[in-house]
Amino acid sequence: MTFLNLSFNRIRGKFSGKYVHMQEIGLSSNYFEGPLPPITTKCSNINLSKNKFSGSLHSLSVVEDLSLSFLDISHNQLSGALSNNWMHFSGLAFLNLGYNNFSGKIPTSMGNLYNLQTLILRNNNLYGELPSSLKHCQGLGFVDFGLNKLSGKVPSWIGESLPQLYGLILKSNRFYGILPREICRLSNLHFLDVSINRISGTIPSCFSNLTAMVLKGNEVVEQTYLPYYPFENSSAFVGSQEVEKAPEEPQNYSYFDSVLARWKGQEFEYGRNFAYLKMIDLSTNKLSGEIPIGITKLVELRGLNLSGNYFYGKVPPEIGRLNVLECLDLSRNNFSGAIPPSMSGLNFLAYLDLSKNNFSGRIPSGTQLQGFNISAYEQNAELCGKPLTNICPGDEPVDYIQPSSGKYEVNEEDGEYEMWLYISAVLGFVSAFWGFIGTLLLNRRWGRAYFFFLDNFFHKLKF
């Protein structure tokens, strides 16, 4: 038998001490326990991930000149130090030791993995600096050292010696110092996560050279590799006669990189879609300064997280160039000034957090920015406009008299004024009337003439 796949079942139990002679074996996502099964030089592809294997890597380290091309023993309960005999694994293209309890330093002999494309050591207890011998693994495309206790400065040889790198994860370690400008040489880099460290200084202005975040159509969905074992002529029996078999053609193998990324405020796992996830996460460090204009040139960027640093100054007005941006987190910094109006044109923006800064002025109008929750803008004392309850200057409501049901309404002061107006008019009329009558009574000549006039007037009306 050359191939066995029992993955995604509920098989439990331990392996015997007998060697596994199969070329490919897949036992992932079961309940196997105990030490790893011993393997031979014939084994090429091994996937034992997501089980309960425990113990050390002793069963692997005793075999020399392995033909292994693919080894995934992640998500187990393996422990101990990583042995320093990786020179016998030179054919490895994929190595995943993540989510175990390995401790100690990263062995320098891993620099002998010249064919390595993917290296994942995530979520262990590894410490110390990154060994410079890894710069010899020039075919590396994806590196995940996240969630360990690694320290030291982010080495410049990452940008100088790993030209194929498209994914770099150093998240949640103890790295310090500045981000080296040599990272800008990684033209294929489309995912950078150095969050939760102690990195200081400013963002290199040359980030605009990360052309994988500028150009479209450069995504690689599947990673491929050739098996490392040699294909030689072999013999087989037909009936009782031994015949020589023709050499087999090498078969390409493929796999998908998988990454955990903080997206829209939560952590998600990306597999097949990882190739399209173009993101920079520098959150929770000690970075300062202003956002360099070069970042606004990364027009294919879909996620930018600069939260939890000491950035200050204004957000570049050109940030509206990032027209496919879906997630933007600038919270917990010292940004000031107005929110750039161009941000209202980020039509794909699904997550925004500008809270806990010193932004001021009116939130730019547009359905995009007004659609976010108040929490996206909170703790910016001088920020105003919807969706906040803070009213911007000039937007205060104006009191005016409004007709209701077709009737004229007045306030209390107007009513009192009209009352005195009516009283004055009545008093004036009464005074004038009695003044006129009084005059006629006092002057008999005018009185007789007036009544004579009235008598003639009404007499003529009868005719």
Q: Give helix % range.
A: 10-25%
| Counted beta strands | 33
Strand fraction equals 25-35%
Shape: elongated
Name the strands of the widest sheet in spatial order: 2-4-6-8-10-12-14-16-18-26-28-30-32-33
Terminal CA distance: 139 Å
The overall average pLDDT, rounded, is 84
Coarse structural class: alpha/beta
State Rg.
Answer: 41 Å
- The parts where pLDDT drops under 50 for at least 5 residues are 230-240, 406-410
Number of helices: 5
What profile does the largest beta sheet have?
14 strands, parallel
Description:
- This protein is an alpha/beta fold and 463 residues long.
- Helices cover 14% and strands 26% of the residues.
Strand and helix layout:
Elements: E1 3-5, E2 12-13, E3 24-26, E4 31-34, E5 45-47, E6 52-55, H1 58-61, E7 70-72, E8 77-81, E9 94-96, E10 101-104, E11 118-120, E12 125-128, E13 142-144, E14 149-153, H2 157-161, E15 167-169, E16 174-177, E17 191-193, E18 198-201, E19 223-225, E20 235-238, E21 241-244, E22 253-255, E23 259-263, E24 266-270, E25 279-281, E26 286-289, E27 303-305, E28 310-313, E29 327-329, E30 334-337, E31 351-353, E32 358-362, H3 367-370, E33 382-384, H4 412-442, H5 444-462
Parallel strand pairs: 1-3, 2-4, 3-5, 4-6, 5-7, 6-8, 7-9, 8-10, 9-11, 10-12, 11-13, 12-14, 13-15, 14-16, 15-17, 16-18, 17-25, 18-26, 25-27, 26-28, 27-29, 28-30, 29-31, 30-32, 32-33
Antiparallel strand pairs: 19-22, 20-21, 23-24
Helix pairs in contact: 4-5
